[in-house]
Amino acid sequence: MKRIEHIGIAVKDLEAANKTYKAVLGAEHYKTETVESEGVATSFFKVGESKIELLAATSPESPVAKFIEKRGEGIHHMAFYVDDIQSEIERLKGEGFRLLNDQPKTGADNKIVAFMHPKDANGVLVELCQEK
């Protein structure tokens, strides 16, 4: 793993959260994107070499909607940049970690992604990210 790529924050209202984080960070978001397969609308802010990704559910059945229903708004995941996502998946499985994805899938921000089970990382959903 090379670096923290982004921190994902689940929000109920993307527009309101954009205003909040614009005030907190002193900068506008630079990109919004909908990821249909995950049922989320996203918004990205740059913070040094890392990013903040705001995630709002686009359907009540999406994982983010269920997360907010269960835990409320807040940190949803930590994403780490990797050079070779398939090798990292295999390495983590070899270490005994459970992956939610055996194969990478399309994510936001021109990335392919895979997730590690939060129960194996002290309750934190870990995302692996690689450029497409």
Jot down its keywords.
alpha+beta, eight-stranded mixed beta sheet, isomerase, 132 residues, MeMalonyl-CoA_epimerase, 8 strands, globular, Glyas_Bleomycin-R_OHBP_Dase, MMCE/EMCE_epimerase
List the helices and strands and how they pair.
Layout: E1 3-11, H1 14-25, E2 31-35, E3 40-47, E4 50-57, H2 63-71, E5 74-81, H3 85-94, E6 105-106, E7 111-116, E8 125-131
Parallel strand pairs: 1-4, 5-8
Antiparallel strand pairs: 1-5, 2-3, 3-4, 6-7, 7-8
Question: How would you describe this structure to a colleague?
Answer:
GO terms for molecular function: metal ion binding; methylmalonyl-CoA epimerase activity. The chain is 23% helix and 40% strand. It has 132 residues and is an alpha+beta fold. The relative contact order is 0.21. The mean pLDDT is 95.
Structure summarized in a few sentences:
By secondary structure, the chain is of the alpha+beta class.
Please state roughly what percent of the residues sit in beta strands, choosing from under 5%, 5-15%, 15-25%, 25-35%, 35-45% or over 45%. Answer: 35-45%
Mean pLDDT: 95
Low-confidence sequence ranges:
none
Classify the secondary structure makeup into a structural class: alpha+beta
How many DSSP helices?
A: 3
Distance between the termini: 16 Å
How is the quaternary structure best described?
single chain
Topology, number of strands: 8
Q: What is the helix fraction of residues, given as a range?
A: 10-25%
Largest sheet: 8 strands, mixed
Numbering strands along the chain, what is their spatial order in the largest sheet? 2-3-4-1-5-8-7-6
From the alpha-carbon coordinates, what is the Rg to the nearest angstrom? 14 Å
